Amino acid sequence: MTTTSASAAHRATVYGYPRQGPNRELKKAVEGYWRGRVDAATLRETAAGLRREVWRQLADAGLHEVPTGDFSYYDHVLDTSVMVGAVPDRHRAAVAADALDGYFAMARGTRDSAPLEMTKWFDTNYHYLVPELGPDTVFAADSTKQVAEASEATALGLAARPVLLGPVSYLLLAKPAPDVAADFAPLTLLDRLLPVYAEVLADLRAAGARWVQLDEPALVQDRTPADLNAAARAYRDLGALTDRPRLLVASYFDRLGEALPVLAAAPVEGLALDFTGPAAANLAGLAAVGGLPGKRLVAGVVDGRNVWINDLEKSLATLGILLGLADRVDVAASCSLLHVPLDATAERDIDPQVARWLAFARQKVDEVVTLARALAHGTEAVAPQLAANRAGLASRAGSALTRDPAVRARTAAVTEADARRGQPYAERAAAQRAHLRLPLLPTTTIGSFPQTSELRAARADLRAGRVDAAAYEARVEAEIRAVIDFQERAGLDVLVHGEPERNDMVQYFAEQLSGYLATQHGWVQSYGTRYVRPPVLAGDVARPGPMTVRWTRYAQARTERPVKGMLTGPVTMLAWSFVRDDQPLAETARQVALALRDEVADLEAAGTSVIQVDEPALRETLPLRAADRAAYLAWATEAFRLATSGVRPRTQVHTHMCYAEFGDILSAIDALDADVISLEAARSHMRVADELAAAGYPREVGPGVYDIHSPRVPEVAEMVGLLRAGLVAVPADRLWVNPDCGLKTRGWPETRRSLEHLVAAAREVRAEQ
Ligand code: GLN
Ligand code: ZN
Q: Atom of ligand 1 at shortest distance to CA of 616?
């Protein structure tokens, strides 16, 4: 295709870039500051240096406009709270005493003031700090950070485009402050907030910004007419300001849907839209509103959330259509590049044949630049890049890694019956009762026991070659013995081996399944200074051999009581990895499910009667738009059943999820057809038990009675109270007694006492039955 548009200069840009630096310098500096080893001036200088380095790199790569203000010491939503003066009362003194320390106090809490709550940023694995607002919130503009960063970039001679979280999304992401009525709607503060944005925009204009980007990702979620009216009002008012830069309103992560006509009609100069994944529907949406005459369109055609090279020709085709729909079309990644690692060329351990399929932040910038060049000067101008891209895509499509005939044949042969247990629940339950002979209100834990620094050190020693595999395994076995001994002494009914061999519940399996790659430097920010290296699900998934049987068998050999096998479910295996974009997620999930199914079969053959398959990510992976959820839940629950339904009726399948809010997936929980489900419930006083009962959930339930998020040891009486509350909803022969989640982050002393209390509580309530 040759697309030329002689008149317009098509610009290349991105909305944000990884903040950490090539060697996670930011993490080191910030944590050093917390520990008193780095002073404030040095921290600031490190941060400024990293920003400079990023902007130079972006400009050298050929971006015409660089984003500013996307940098953060901790979180950009917290930065926005500071920008609008929304500091919770409990942190005001700290902020007044020292802005930087006050900032970190809001992020991390202090001895006597809790931090802001943290939650997931849309459907990514990034977490933001939730603004706390109330009817008494008084906003006040503080544009210091935005102005300073814009000026830094401008001083380098670059076209800086400050990026701000937009006022509507800011309010929609907020929650009522702790002392405020729970039904308070932060969006009612819009009129108070807009003047603050007006002031910041004026300051940015004075600092030389020609364009400012206002991010409104909350508008890609299902919104009420009132929300949409608020958005219309916000951009009508901001658009009407006279002292302001040009406004680019950005959305990403999904399609704008009914918000698209609202923004298209707003008096702003540009829109930035995502055209990847489900957001590809923006293309039709844009055509339906008659395009964006007179406006600038920034087209997010390079997926900013995954790690794969773009299909440049496909993107050019999309851009070609868009040229007819807006006055000016620029090219960008679909969202901030915050969600991908920095540079694929740093990965020296990945087979070069596979490495050429990868595009991290740096490579994505090159793709954006190539596409903008092709638009401006024709595809001939980028012929070498297009050829290399074609070759990379062909190599991926034709590779034995992405096309394993045995795996493909097996997934293709899956039938509806393969994903169904052989007997209905009631019959299985009877067989399990006869086989397991558990007492009423059986006690168990969720899987992991404390991951001590000693265990982590043993793993580090193994990696570094300081100890050999035999020594490491002996260490793991010793831990398993200790965990089993403790559980027997404490009197738990269904034991676990404690997961001492696992670095992480996804990575442990990813390392053993073919089709997954590990990166050396693929860090992405999870929150604050916490970075994770998600595995890359690159190819067809198969299980070369058993993954957990050895440890479960070792544990079972040490006790007469049943030991639960412990696996991570298919949805979670996908959710906490970078997934393939060359086939439907459902297909990838099915491959993982079949690998797990074999592991389940091996566990059963080794004498395991209870097998737990954790799916903590089932809810967080829900598509942003309700219209897409049924399809997702259908494949997600099918994958779980495919993994677990190959067992005999008397084998008991458990699942576990880590949250108390799951009203929207109740029917999916039922569709898992697990015999037992454990959930978080201690902090919400067993509310989940009521909800499940109200929904007619017929199977066994273990609502957590021990909040594992703090070192506090719950008293017996407290857990007795919770169990009695649970019994109001769930009959005694279907109620389990367990903590909210795994104990890996806890220490041994509190774990011991808490579990002893838990067993005592179960016994006390059991005696009343
Ligand atoms: N089995 C896991 C554990 O106990 C479950 C963790 C989780 O749900 N996040 O650690
Ligand atoms: Zn959990």
A: 8
> 196 φ, ψ to 5°?
-70, -45
| Catalytic annotation, pick one of 435, 685, 709, 757 | 709
Quick count: other Cβ atoms within 10 Å of Cβ 40? 12
DSSP bridge partners of 609:
none
Whether 91 is catalytic is no
Assigned token pair, 740: 């909210």
What is the chain's Cα-based Rg? 27
Asked whether 656 lines ligand 1 (CB < 6 A), one says yes
Tell me: the pLDDT tens digits for 3-26?
Answer: 433 334 899 999 999 999 999 999
**In the structure encoding, which two tokens stand for residue 703, read together?**
């609502």
Q: What is the bridge-based pairing of β-strands 652-656 and 676-679?
A: parallel
Token couple for 606? 């080794």
Contact 642, 414 (CB under 8 A): yes
The rounded Å distance from CA 701 to ligand 2 centre is 14
Q: How far apart are CA 399 and CA 190, in angstroms?
A: 53
pLDDT tens digit string along 383-423? 999 999 999 999 999 999 999 999 999 999 999 999 999 99
Return all residues near 320 (Cβ < 8 A) that are at least 6 apart: 1, 3
Question: How far is the CA of 260 from the CAs of 254, 416, 520, in angstroms?
Answer: 12, 39, 40
Which numbered atom of ligand 1 lies nearest the CA of 502?
10
Ligand closest in space to the Cα of 446: 1
Ligand 2 centroid – CA 658 distance (Å): 4
Say what the ipTM of the complex is. 0.99
CB-side exposure of 750: number of CA atoms within 13 Å? 17
How far is 162 from 151, CA to CA, in rounded Å?
A: 10
Residue with tokens 């509310």: 687
Task: Give the C-alpha separation, 388 to 622, whole Å.
Answer: 35
Gap between the Cα atoms of 319 and 647, Å rounded? 51
Nearest CA to ligand 1 atom 10: 742
